[in-house]
Amino acid sequence: MKKSIIAIATVITLLFSANNIQAKTIDITNEVVEASQLQSVYDSYFAVKDALIKSDSKLTSAKAATLLTAITAVKMDKLKSNEHTVWMKVVKKLTADAKSISSTTDLKKQRETFKSLSKNTYDLIKVSNPEQPIYKQYCPMADADWLSKEKAVKNPYYGSSMLTCGNVVETIK
Q1: Cα 110 to the center of its chain, rounded Å
Q2: Tag placement on the chain: N or C end, fewer CB within 10 Å?
């Protein structure tokens, strides 16, 4: 009888432990989903920036279309509460800016709209705790900021004509 009770207690303990492990696995999976949702938006933003650095308006338009897809794919209910709050404030403007940039091959208009896109992306990335440092950079000639994964300045507002104009004004970690 005593052995039966010990066996039953052991089985219950094992089942309870397995459920805890499974619950923790689900939590970890949800964290990955949350991070990857906004990561695709950020990666697409950086692709738009890189196309502007090259002064390639067609590539910029195509990368902005990819950004638009990434924005519409975000599932708001999967965002952390602080990200969700900022997302609700910036999503309409991010969408409008991505549409605007993707619908033109006028480099000057793309760069002008990129100012707003950068401001709203900054607001969002600031609350996201990025995996790697992100550098907020500023160009006094364009009076505008942008975000970069690299500390070295590569100016999207002037491309090769003033590639290194600007400086790092903030590091987001």
Answers
A1: 20
A2: N
Cα distance between residue 76 and residue 129, in whole Å? 17
CB 124 within 8 A of CB 90: yes
3-state secondary structure of 132: coil
Q: Where are the domains of the chain?
A: 2-127
What is the structure's pLDDT at 129?
83
Which parts of the chain have pLDDT scores under 50? 24-34
- Mapped onto helix, strand or coil, the DSSP state of residue 163 is coil
Determine the CATH number of domain 2-127: 1.20.120
Residues contacting 98, CB < 8 A, separation 6+: 64, 65, 67, 68, 71, 117
**pLDDT for position 30:** 47
Confidence (pLDDT) at 33: 43
> Given CA atoms 131, 159, 91, 65 in this order, what sign does their dihedral have?
negative
Can you read off the two tokens belonging to residue 16?
Answer: 């309870």
**What does the alpha-carbon distance between residue 34 and residue 77 come to, in Å, rounded to a whole number?**
9
3-class secondary-structure state, position 95: helix
